[in-house]
Amino acid sequence: MSYALTEPFQSGNLKVSDIHTLYYEVSGNKDGAPVVFLHGGPGGGTDPKDRGFFNPEKYKIILFDQRGSGKSKPTASLEENTTWDLVKDIETIRELLKIDKWHVFGGSWGSTLSLAYAQSHPDRVKSLVLRGIFTLRKSELSFFYQDGASHLFPEAWEEFIAPIPEAERHDIVLAYHAQLNSVDDQTRITAAKAWSKWEMSTSRLFVDPAQVAHAEEDDFANAFARIENHYFVNDGFMRDGQLLDKQEIDKIRHIPTVVVQGRYDVICPATTAYALKKVFPELTLHIVPDAGHSSREPGITKLLVEATDKFADL
């Protein structure tokens, strides 16, 4: 379904502020169509498998770990870590690699960042391939972290809220914020693993035990949970619904855009992709009838690869 992976022909660590250094890599065809992959989370980091969404004979594939994520340093740092810092970082990488315009690919939080970047720099984007649309509206966060997904995954939800005292459960994200920033190491890592496990337990139509086990890894859980929570407590550092505002969409209406959405995605429910389609009717929306949230689900992978194949010669 996806392409065979090729090893990076270039990689490095790029200092983007006094605090942050980003890991980046370039693979595929040195002279191919440039595409930047924006990973999810925030805080999730990249995986070598992410290269597989692109034909390595046609694409120059750029992956990087966002601030505090993956191989970027310092791990799990929340300082100078906002949506708009990341948008600046994307531009810094584009300029470093001497790319004029590139294709932009992102799923989940990666779709949020793709939209934010494209709306900030519409003249630099050749196409958008997005999956599991997430725009950080309060209603979206409430569905997954307060009252929505809990009705579908009651056993996983019970584990998720277990670290939170009952008196604080009226605002789960805020309650987790206190624990994820505790000075006590054990409190922090217990909360990080519980936060991460909730997402890994709900991300596929058929849950992958290996993915759930990933949430038990200290370094991954710490970065993933702390950075996600930091962004969510701060509403993504944007006004509610900003990415769906008509004046923002008008900036990107000319950009060829494909959206792939799992029908049974409970992390980023289809209502957000549908809202984007209503304000941005020019885009192509595919709703996959037998998929949840993960880009690794067969129906979602297939359509994402078809989209990148379509845009390869643009």
From TrEMBL:
Keywords: Aminopeptidase, Cytoplasm, Hydrolase, Protease. InterPro entries: AB_hydrolase_1, AB_hydrolase_fold, Peptidase_S33, Pro_iminopeptidase. GO terms for molecular function: aminopeptidase activity. It is an enzyme of class 3 (hydrolase). The active site is at S108, D265, H293. It catalyses: Release of N-terminal proline from a peptide. Its main location: cytoplasm. It is found in: Cytoplasm. Residues 34-294 form the AB hydrolase-1 domain. GO terms for biological process: proteolysis. Its EC number is 3.4.11.5. GO terms for cellular component: cytoplasm. Belongs to the peptidase S33 family. This is Proline iminopeptidase. It comes from Hypsizygus marmoreus (White beech mushroom).
